[in-house]
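User: Hi! I'm working on a homework problem where we have to compare a predicted structure to a textbook description. Could you give me the structure for the chain below?
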Amino acid sequence: MQKKLLSIVASVSLSVGAASIHAAGTISGTPHDLSGKGWGTTELCKYCHTPHQAQNVSGAPLWNHQSTAVNYTLYSSLTFKGSVAQPGPQSKLCLSCHDGTVASDSFANGGVIQAGTHFMTTSNLVGGSAYLGSDHPISFAYNSALATADGHLNPPASANFADAGSQLPLYSSQLECATCHAVHDNTYGKFLRMANTGSAMCRTCHTQ
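Assistant: Happy to help. Predicted structure tokens:
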């Protein structure tokens, strides 16, 4: 009986381990795989995470990267009916590479952030530098009131998800970068959380 129980435990452990490795390994070979760049490490996860001496950054487990503290010039449009705030903690994690002010290889070395030298190219910037005015707005409350005021938006399915299928998360009812993009999964390209064939993802929120 004891041998049989140990066998079952070992089998479950291996299955869980394999699933975890598969989930973590989805960035291998994607644009978020920086391990082969020759920027000071060949480790896949190190650019963002470390098991020891992690940075204390909100919303970031075991964070190993320098984060931006920039105050951004925010999105502005005559047609936008919402109110945009400075990026939330989830979006600031993305912007720590994608706004071009922090180098991708600014990761911790012995608990101290080292100054990196490799910055995002213009084609990968979100708005560029400390300006977020030309891209899709982020860090705004996406709710029924906004949908009504806009007239061309669907109300979110709940305070936690934009869609009924729970694929597009909201953060404290706000839309952030991570609402549409899953940093570890490039299944649909551009790290989208769902397929956008026929603008299906866009039309989750937009009616036209």
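For your comparison, note the following. Residues 76 and 121 are 24 Å apart (CA to CA). Residues 1-25 have pLDDT under 50 and may be disordered. Good luck with the assignment!
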